Amino acid sequence: MKKQLVAVVMAAIFLCVPMAFAEMPGPDPDSLWEYITKESSYTKWEFWPDHQGMQPGRAPHGPLHKVFVNDRALNSTQPPVQYGSIAVKENYGTDKELKAITVMYKVTGYNPDAGDWFWAKFSPDGKADIFGKPAGCVGCHGTRAKNDFILVHEFK
Ligand code: HEC
User: Fold this and answer.
1) Whose CA is nearest to atom 18 of ligand 1?
2) Which residues of the chain have pLDDT under 50?
3) How far lies 121's CA from each of 110, 131, 139, in Å?
4) 36 Cβ inside 6 Å of ligand 1
5) How close is the Cα of 41 to the center of ligand 1, in Å?
6) How far is CA 34 from CA 14, 25, 31, 40, 142, in A?
7) Inter-residue contact 130 to 121 (CB < 8 Å)
8) Closest C-alpha to 103, from 53, 28, 156, 52
9) Residue 67 burial class via C-beta count within 10 angstroms: exposed 0-12, middle 13-18, buried 19 and up
10) Is any atom of ligand 1 closer than 6 Å to the C-beta of 66?
11) What is the pLDDT, as a whole number, of residue 12?
């Protein structure tokens, strides 16, 4: 009887642990795009409290942008942010036309030398132009490695 109970509890643990993570996409551009546009729909996410709505930006991203963050990022009070955190940045031209979508996604063990971020740059229709561990993204954001490579939000 006791053995059966142990077996049931063990089975429950083994089934539940992977399920808790199952909803997050792998570090590849297609699954990430699918996740942020369909499964989770980033436009319903929030903004950082200190970076609301459309904001002026710098090169290379363009003159205007919005940065949406998921719950895991938003609930992270200290750097590094929690695994599974995603920041989606909509990049606009001066005409307020959407030009590109750049994404940072924190994946356990993906790139320990540079904050475990998976980087991607998509065209507005979801084509991944650049993705993975691009030296450009990592290098420039790496100037704020202490802020977990995040530039628009300052952890206090
Ligand atoms: C030369 C510097 C530079 C490079 C290269 C760069 N970024 Fe950024 N990134 C910035 C700056 C500056 C911001 C702050 C917002 C702004 O000014 O546009 C930013 C903001 C972001 C944000 C919003 C989250 C945050 O960190 O605040 C994302 C997501 C992002 N970049 C993704 C990328 C990706 C993906 C790449 C590579 C394809 C990339 N960036 C390359 C400078 C850079």
Assistant:
1) 57
2) none
3) 17, 6, 15
4) no
5) 21
6) 27, 8, 5, 9, 27
7) yes
8) 28
9) buried
10) no
11) 66
